[in-house]
Amino acid sequence: MPHGMHARLPRNFVLEERLERYARAIELAPRDWRGRWAAACAPLGAAPYREVRLDLGCGKGAFAVESARREPDVLFVAMDSEPICVAYAAQRVCESGLPNVIVVPGTGMRVREFFSPGELSCIYLNFPTPFPRKREAHKRMASMERLMDFREVLAPGAEVRLRTDSQPLFDFMLTQVPIAGYDLVWQSRDARADFPDAPSSEYEERLGAQGARVFALAATPGPGPAPEHPVQTAELSLAAYLPQDLETLEGLGYAPHGMQATVTNLRNRALREAARDRSRI
Ligand SMILES: C[S@@+](CC[C@H](N)C(=O)[O-])C[C@H]1O[C@@H](n2cnc3c(N)ncnc32)[C@H](O)[C@@H]1O
Known about the structure:
Strand order of the largest sheet: 3-2-1-4-5-7-6
Bound molecules: S-adenosylmethionine
CATH class: Alpha Beta
CATH architecture: 3-Layer(aba) Sandwich
Distance between the termini: 49 Å
Number of helices: 11
Order of helices and strands: HHEHEHEHEHEHEHHEHH
Strand content: 15-25%
């Protein structure tokens, strides 16, 4: 679970029991299906799925299940590194009765072990954990390093799609897209207004109710060869992407998830500086 948003577990929640109860929706050996997901997961006697898409960091699975309901000929692989999320997502899949969504415990650090070249037609990053500090930046899914990995498993023309409440993470990702040799397909700083019918995730619902705007983009590997030695030139601390002046900071009605303390510190620092400037006059 990401900082500050630990799932409140029901009193009788026993992880092992849950994982067992919903095991039919969970794939424990994803490496075995590398290169074969579309055919191997299709119902017996049915044609292979038209596409395979990955919901990376799926949380409790609402987005993957709703997407699967809307597109029955596409296989949605919902992956999360947290066993609790896997259990919740698997429960949702079982209760939906949908055949075209499967939950996989795994880390986005290792997608190349789970999928073969060109196997995925989309990787969704819905509200990925922002890891705002520089020293944790290597854990971000929205980063040049991951984009370089993802391009190995994406089909030609396939997309990485990011949705986030975090303007700093979004602006950071905009710097990463060209470094990894991707083209920006579209971007939106108010995706709920621009795409009101898109399925939403648990975080989108929860943070939206708290006043979050949704920043979203789609990017696809560019037509040229992959950058051979991409160099990270962007500022890694997400604090650097926050507005620095007091007026804009004061105007921020909503502090991005995981960055509330940083916003408060910046605001206090700006207030102290303003007070110091006034005392000098
Ligand atoms: C903020 S939650 C968002 C969950 C869901 N996508 C949503 O929008 O409601 C981020 C999720 O990413 C998962 N996560 C973080 N790092 C991961 C990684 N390296 N691989 C897979 N999942 C990861 C976390 O366990 C968490 O469930």
